[in-house]
Structure formats: structure tokens, C-alpha cells
Amino acid sequence: LATSQPRHARLYRFRADAPTTTMQRIKGLTTGSLPTFIDVGSNFATYAIQEDNLLAQLVQNGRRVVFMGDDTWEGLFPKKFFRSYFFPSFNVKDLHTVDDGILQHLYPTVDSGEWDVLIAHFLGVDHCGHKHGPDHPEMAKKLTQMNEMLRSLVDHLGNDTLLLVAGDHGMTQTGDHGGDSEKEVNAALFVYSKTPLFSTGLPEEPETVPQVNLVPTVALLLGVPIPYSNIGEVMAELFSGDGDAVSAALQQLSVYHINAKQVDRFLHSYSLVAQDLPADQLQHLRELFSSTVEEHTRLLAQMQEATLVPAELESRLGSLIRRFQLYLQEARAVCTQSWARFHPLRMVGGCTLIAASCLLCYVASELATASDSFYRSCLLYPLLWSLVVAVLLGLARAFTQEGLDILLVSSWAAAASQLGFFWYWWGQHPKRAHLVGSQPPLASIGLRQRLRAWLGLAFPMGILLFRCGAMFSDSFVVAEARVAPFLLASLVMLLVGKLHWDGHLTVPEGPKQQLLGFSSYRREIWYLLCLMAALLVCVRLSGFFHQCREEIPQCQPSLFLSPLASLRNTRAKNLFYLLCVALLAGLVYAVRSWLRHYGNLNSSEPLVLFVRWGFPLVVLCIACYWAVASSADDSLGKLQELVQVAVVVFPWAVYGLASVGLLLLLCNPMTVFAKDTREPAGSIVTPYLGVPSSEVDFLHVIPQIYKRMQESQKSRLEQGSCRATVAAYGLGSVYSAALVIALTLLGFLLMLLHSERLSLAFLLLFLEAFVLLHMHARARGLAGDAEPFSVPWYAVISWLLAASQFFYSTGHQPIFPAIHWNAAFVGFHLDHSTNLLPAVLVGANTFASHILFAVGCPLLLLWPFVCEMPSLQKRKPKKEPREELQEVEEHMMEMRLRESPEKFSTALLQLGLKYLFVLGTQLLACVCAAMILRRHLMVWKVFAPKFLFESLGFVVSSICLLLGISLVMRVDCAVSTWFSQLQLR
Amino acid sequence: MKEAEIRKLLAANLLSVFSVVLSAVVPAFFWDGFTVLGTHLAWLCICSVCVSTLNIILHLVLKPNLSPKRSSFAHKISRFLKCCIYFFMSCILFHAIIVLYGAPLIESVTETFLFAVLLSAFTTLQCLCMLGPNIQAWIRVFSKNGAMSIWESSLQITTMCSILGAWFGAFPIPLDWDRPWQV
């Protein structure tokens, strides 16, 4: 059309401002101002636009606005439309509902003529891009459909109608949008009218038009005032009309004048309210504006006197127009440059708050083992303090009739509680110093030990420092997907190297051997080296699942990220599908065999039954869902309806089964099978005390009970029939078993939310976590730590590094286009009624690795106890029966934790605090980076999204950490009740 | 005795540093268009060859480990072969570790491998010269309180610093100072 009727139509390149999400674009297209970044999160939870906008102006001036399409508009402009046909927009998998609906209503409405402005927002192409990507046959179909629509629409148009066809944003190679890459911000604008619009022919290269320019143009064309906050510039070409050059220029000039006046008014009032526009630039703009306006009035006056020759008039008009243009463009540039407001005071306050909390976590984790009264004084009182302060502040605010700022109040409360903590800590400090001072020789030893401990800390803390430092450079944030695995690998290598350096790996040899310079490794070294190699391979392999950022131009997004449905090669699709399902089955098999190995699969409790039969069922459901979801859209023909049902039913089955499993886990987390072999009336012989004379002794017996059938039988045989005992299977790993089951269930849920082939990444995740735990346990065993109840820093840091590594390896990036919106539709074919559920689903998808690692965090404490077993088992047969008793004592595994409950809870607390400290340090680095670099070129592209993702991840991690720890506590309770029941029998 | 040894050690280390510098500077006179960054492959080759020859020469001249027993020619040959095998193995091992640390698997294999060779020249070759193909001795040297002579502690320090330097060398990789917007 543009080529056949050059005076009627024109194609422009339409530049959107970031962020290119739909709601922001709609706002931009109607108010003409720039969006603020924080709005992106509420993309799908629209609220009405408060500002002055095009539609409001239209309605005020009695125009009839008809709308059809995306229901985002309904939220933005409630009750503004003369008539409207809304269709749900959120389900990106649904390609046709919106478009078909619009097409149904479009032509009748156009023909009826009962409208002044008609807006039709098609979504098919956008959704198609999200679902299939830009180069898919479906996209071609969709685009053909749109083309047909335009063609017939042009035939329906009246002579006085202007047709504007605009895309609100472009899309990246993967079909997503939201960022500000070249591909995302570029869309097309097509202008057409049956009456000739343009005086000149077609330009060679389509002009580039910023998106906000549409607002004043449309407003002035329709004869309504320009919206107040507009900073766009009118598209003068559309106002040239069909007169001669002078009249056209005059018309354009008047239009520019109106536009400039409006922008100036807006800038003036804005700069009065906020001081963030640089003053000198503002001054410059004002000068430009006033001089131009003067010129304009002078010109108009001269015009009226008609003293000018047309040629001079034309040139002066031209220059004036150019000056107006210049003014408008500069104004826009100024606004774009600094459109964000910052509260430096609050920022600093927040930073100090986070820093103080980090310090608190650190101090508390160091102190946790120190004293018993510690809890009440240091943790409980500050909480009370904070409550008091919060209430006081709230009352003060209420009395002064000011609006209650929840954020401020809560931060003050937190600050107060921290102050309280440090106060008590400081109060305790002198006391302890005094205590230490009374024993001078001890103190010096303590100092040296402390020094050594500090040196030991230096390695993992150094790694953590590097990680935090990396947050301050945009290129390191961009490359973080590779930085995290690098640091993790380094940390693990360091650990092994340090063990070697300290000589824990070599067999302690006699002085004679040492003189010869020989030393040989223990056998465990090979095991450790294999573990390390496995870990490194895992880390390397997980690098194949990375998503791309646009900052790295040569990067290709991983093949595994796209859903199987987008794969066109049927054979490859089937192959991948089978592989994924096989891996799932393998995961289930591995978990089951692990549980069986530790004897947790013997009882007939509902939970164990669930693990036995429910897990395969879950896998079956996931496999069926994948099969249905990955099948081609149209290939099934008649089965379409069945497929529609199946797509919903299978995920629901998985959700249901998983929640049943978690509930069972909560109700009865015991995976212990007790076999009572006591003589009904006989005496119970304990290993060392004979007949239990008191309950205390009895409690002492039970932890020593054997884990497995054979052992109990063997020991009974060895020790003769003088002793009868209760055989409890899987008591030794009861805590970890519960955690492992919970983790597996969560893993299934999260896998369901990801695309099919990412299950490979999840398998790697489980494998890597397993290897890490084993290494940790092994290192603990080799180093022979004095205090088994504290988890060393390196373990915590490596655990967290692994978490952030798998954030990237499950195909995420801390940028908005990389969010997997598809996750919101797993199990929901149609639209959501609320916004909460999809938010939870997408959040779970995004922070999958954070969730898994945080819940699994207590395993770091438990695993060394679980792994005590195998090494002792080997030595067992050689031992004398008499030594058997001591051996038996060491079989307690996690039951050791039961022996000293207060130590156990302290250890849990300490672990949690350490984890929080490391998390908090990362967050602090992020926050500081975002604060210090808030005027950086890349702040909106790199630091701000990173900060948002990191803080969300922090919240998710801490919640999950709490859940994991509370699960362990629940198991603890269950174990105690179990013991008391056993005792009653 | 000790003074002399320290002087020798100093001379050896200075020579090593000198050879590295020379390997970067000298070829430019013979070969047009040679720069360290531009023709990095050639430089890697030259540097590793330089360092390894220097190490071997130094070892032959200075003889830091005085082996009391004289060994037969065949024994020497077998020792030499063993050393070669060890060196090659260490190259492969370093290559594997570098790849596991995130180097690309297929593209720029030559770069990676040459880097591994260079790293081996700095670490493994020195160990081989000093300690011979004797794993037990290596293990002894690289543990706490393991070094028994000044030569061995120097070995410890140079090897660890080489590896540490290689590790730090990875840090500037993500920097994007060559992009157009970084004026």
C-alpha cells in the first residue's frame, strides 16, 4: 500500500522506550510519558492510570471510544470506553481467542460508524512469539491472518478515517520482550488514510519515530488537548494537509507551538516538585523555549501585517519549526536521561540495616555455641524491643494524623531490635573478657587459636568477597552465570588442596619413613578425587543450560531451554522425550535406593507407602503431561478436546500427589520400622548396663539400636541370646530421609514448571548437591573436626554458590525478558481468576534452585552423621566381640543429635544464621552496587534487575530455609514421641 | 654454603624471569608483525619452549639435588622417558581442568592446550627437574612442613604462584572494555 499510494500511506520505524512490556507500552501510548521501571512487576496486575491521558481527554471531549482486544486496557482505563469487547490476555499459550474475538466484532463496528476512535489490540502475534518464537510456522500463519485482516479493513474504511497500525514492542530471538535490546524496542507504525496525507513521496529509509510521539499527534488530529504529562513530539507530516507549502508549514507550526507549550508546562511543574532534572539543562531548555515562542509571536504578527514575501516566510517558518523540533527533542532527551527519583537517605538507611543484620547473623552464629542464656537475652529481648518501638511509632503516627508508612515503621522496628541485640552483646562481652583475663595462659592459646581460625576462614571468605565484588561491575554481573561455577570449582579445589596441605590425606607415618621422604595416600583420597572430578564435571555440564543476555552478542541460548513443542524434528523430539522420562525414573530409583540403603523403606507407614508407590505415579503423570504438551497443536485432530483436558488434568494430578506427599511428611515424618524382638516378659539387656533400672537408662539404649536387619541379627548372634533388643530400621537417617523425600517432591513440582529438557539440569542439580554433601562429609571425616555440631563456612558458601549457579543453569537470568512466563499455565489452560497463583508459579519457576538448596540446607549438618556409617562397617567384621560394643555406639549416626538436644538446636540455629549471613552479604553487595552506581549507564539494564532478582531470591531462600529447619524440628518432635511410645510398650 | 645456595637460587629465578621477558621481546626483531597479543599462539609456543629449555639447562648446570648414587645409562634413559610421559600427562590434566573450569570444549582447542603446556612448563617441569619422576616426593614437598631444602621451598612457592596467577588470569575475561559503548 505504501508503495502504491505514497501520498496515502507511510511506514515508520516505531521506537518504544524500555521496558517493553505490554502495560508500560499502553501507558506510554496513551499518556505520552516515560514509564518507571518498577511498574514491570505489575504488568499483569494492572491498576487504573491516574495521570492525564489520551483516552481521558477523548472521553472528556465527548468522543466515542470503542475498544476491542487485550483486557489489560480494562484495568488501565475502567469505564472509559463507549463500547468495549475485552478478551483475556494473560494466557500466552492461547493464540486465537483474542484475535478471533476482535475479528468477529471489528467489521460490524467499523461499518456501523458509531465511533470516533476505535482501538483494536491484537495479541496473537505476541503470544505466538512467546510460545513458539519468531521463526515458527505458527508465526507465519498468524502474520498472514493479520495481513488479511488489514487488507479487508482498508476496504471498510471511510474517507475521513486515519488508520494507524502500530506494534507496541518488538521481540527478541526467543520471542520474548520486556528489555531494551534493539530487537525489542523496534516495531512498525503504519499510517494510512483514503485521503492523501503526505505532500512528498516515499522516503528511502523509513523514518524512526519514538513511541510517545503518537500521543500528541492523535490528540491534535482529533482536536482534543494533549495529555498533561506528554513529552512526545507531534508528527508534523500528518498535519500538512493538501494546501500549498506555506499553509502546510503554518499548520505544522501552530501544532508545534501547542505541543511545545504543553511540554514546557509539564517540565516546569515537574521541576517544581522534584529536583532531579539537572538545573542547567532545564535553564537552557527554558531559554530555548521562550526565544522560540517570541520568534513565533513576532512571525505571526508579521504575518497578519502581511509584510513578508512568501519565500522569506517559508524559510523563517522552516527555521522556526526546526527550533521547535529541537526544543521538543532536547526536552525528551533530558527526561529520558533522568527519569528516576532516588531517596539517598533511605537508601543509605536500608544499606546500613542490611549490613547490620549481616553482622548480627555473623556474631550470633559465632556466639550460638557460647552460652545458654544467650537466647533469651540476645534474641528474645530485641524482638520485644522492636515490637515496642513499632507500636510507639505507630501510635505517634496515628496521633499526628499522618499517613502510616509501613515500610518506615518496620525498618525502624528492625533497627531497634538490632540495636537491642548489639547492646546485649556488648554487655556480655566485658564479662567474657573478664573471664578470659583471669586465666592468662589460656588466653594466649586462645589468641593463637583464634588467629589460626581466622586464617582458615580466609579462603572461603575470600571467595565470598570475590563474589560480592563481582556485583559492582556490570560486566561481571553480566557474566555471573560463569563466575559462580568458576568460584565454586575454585572453592572445592581449594578445600581438597588444603586438606592435602594439612596432611590429612596422607597416612600418618613413623619418623623413619618421614626421613626417607615417602608418604603415601590413604585409600580415601581416590574417593575424594573422584567426588571432586564428578563435581567439576557437573559444574561444567550445567553450563550447557544457560540462557543468554543480550549484552553478550555472540551467545546462543541453550537448545534445552525451548519446550519440546517447538522442536520440529520428530525423531529428535521423541529421543529427548524418552531421555527426560528415563532421567526422571532414574532420579526416583536413586532416591528409593538411597532410602533403602539406609533402611528407611521398610515400614508400612503411609509416608513410606507413598514413597514406594506415589513417586512412580508422579513420574508417570509428569511424563504424560510432557507427552501431551509437547505434541504438535493441530496434529491430533479429533483428540483435541481430550488433549485440552489432559493438559490440565495431569499437572493437577502432580500437584495433588505432591501436596499429599508433603502433608503426609508433615503428619508423620517417621520412616522408621521398629521390630520388637524383646521377650514379652523377659528382661531387657542393654549393652553395658544390664537391666535398665531407670527410664533414663532406657532412653539411652534406644539410640544404640542397629540400623539394619543383618547387623542386628549378626550382633545378636555374636553376643549370644542373652540379649533381646528392638531393631529399628532407618533410625539413623530419619532426619535426612524426611528432608530427601521433601526435596524430591519439591524437585518434581519444580520440574513440572520448567520446560521438559531442563529436567536434565535438575538431575545435575541433585547430583551436584549429593556430591557436595559427600565431599563435605568426607572432608569432615578426614579433618577430624573437634566440634561435629558446627558446619564450617566453606560448606555453607559452596552450598550457596551452587544455588546461584543452578539459578543460571535452570535457564534463568536476572533480567525481565528471561522470566519463564509459561510456568503460569502449567495446569491452567484458561485464564487465572487471581494474580496470586500465577505469581507463585512463576516465582517458583524462577527461584527453583534457591528453593531446593535452601530447603536442603539442614542436610549440611546431618550428612556427616549419616555418612559415618560406611567406613566403620568395613572394619567391623575384624573386630573382637568385645569391641563390638564400642562400634555399636558409633552406629548411632543422626541419633547422636538426639543425645544432646540443646546442642542440636543450637547447631541448627547456627547453620541457619550462617546461611543467612552469606545470603545477606550477597544481597548487601547488590544493594550497594545499585545504590552507588545509580547513575551508571547500565543501571536499568544490569544492576536494577539484578538487585530485584537478588532480593526476591533472598526472601524466597530465607522462607525456604525456615521451612527446611522447621521440617527438621518436626521430625525431631516425631522422634521424641516415637521414643516415648516405645518406652511405654 | 647457604649463602651460595641462596645466590644460586636468586640467579636461577632471575634468569627465568628474564627468559619470559625475552621471549616476549626478542622474536619481534626476527619476525615482522609479532606481538604478544596479536600472535598469541606463537608467543605461547616460544615462551613455553624458552622456559622449559632454561629450566633443563639450569637443572643440568646447578644440580640442586645431589643424588649420591650414580646410575646406569639405561636407568637414566628410563627416567627421562618417564619424565616425558609425566609432562605430557600433566599437560592433558591441565587441559582437562581448564576445560572443566569453563573453557570452550571444541573451539580454540589449540589455545587451551598451549596454555596447558605453558602452565606445565612453569609447574610440572620444574618439579620433574628438581624431584624426578617420584610421586611420593612430590606429595611430600607439597604439604605443610614438607619442604626440606631451600630449593624445595622455592619450588613450592613458584608452583603455587603459577597456579594462582593462572587462576587470577581468568578474572579479566568477562570485562567488556572493548565494546563500542565503553568509550
Could you describe the 3D structure shown?
The complex is a heterodimer of chains A (985) and B (183). Mean pLDDT of chain A is 69; it is low at 36-47, 435-444, 508-520, 676-726 and 869-893. Chain A is mainly α and 985 residues long. Chain A has a four-stranded mixed beta sheet with strand order 5-6-1-7. Helix content of chain A is 63%, strand content 5%. In chain A, strand 2 (65-70), helix 3 (72-76) and strand 3 (83-87) form a beta-alpha-beta unit. Chain A is built from 35 helices and nine strands. Chain A folds into four domains: 2-210, 3-Layer(aba) Sandwich (Alkaline Phosphatase, subunit A); 243-341, Up-down Bundle (Single alpha-helices involved in coiled-coils or other helix-helix interfaces), CATH 1.20.5; 344-434, no CATH class; 472-507 and 518-674 and 731-871 and 890-984, no CATH class. Chain B has one domain. In chain B, 70% of the residues lie in helices and 0% in strands. In chain B, helix 3 (40-62) runs parallel beside helix 5 (109-122). The A-B interface holds A 473-476, 478-479, 482-483, 485-486, 489-490, 500-503, 506, 517-521, 536-537, 539-540, 543, 551, 937 and B 97, 99-102, 136-137, 139-140, 142-144, 148, 167, 170, 173-176, 181. Chain B: Its main location: endoplasmic reticulum. Chain B: It is a multi-pass membrane protein. Chain B: The chain crosses the membrane at residues 9-29, 41-62, 83-106, 112-132, 153-173. Chain B: One of its GO terms (cellular component) is endoplasmic reticulum membrane.
Q: Averaged pLDDT of chain A, please? A: 69
Largest interface, counted with CB-CB under 8 A?
Answer: A-B, 29 and 20 residues
Query: What coarse outline of chain A follows from CA principal-axis ratios?
Result: globular
Strand share of the residues of chain B? under 5%
Count of separate DSSP helical elements of chain A: 35
Major β-sheet profile of chain B: none
Give the class of chain A from helix and strand content and strand pairing.
mainly alpha
Helix and strand pattern of chain B:
HHHHHHHH
Helix content estimate of chain B: 55-70%
Number of strands of chain B: 0
User: Separation of termini of chain B?
Assistant: 58 Å
Please give the count of helices of chain B. Answer: 8
End-to-end separation of chain A = 91 Å
Number of structural units classed as domains of chain B: 1
Strand percentage of chain A lies at under 5%
Radius of gyration of chain A: 35 Å
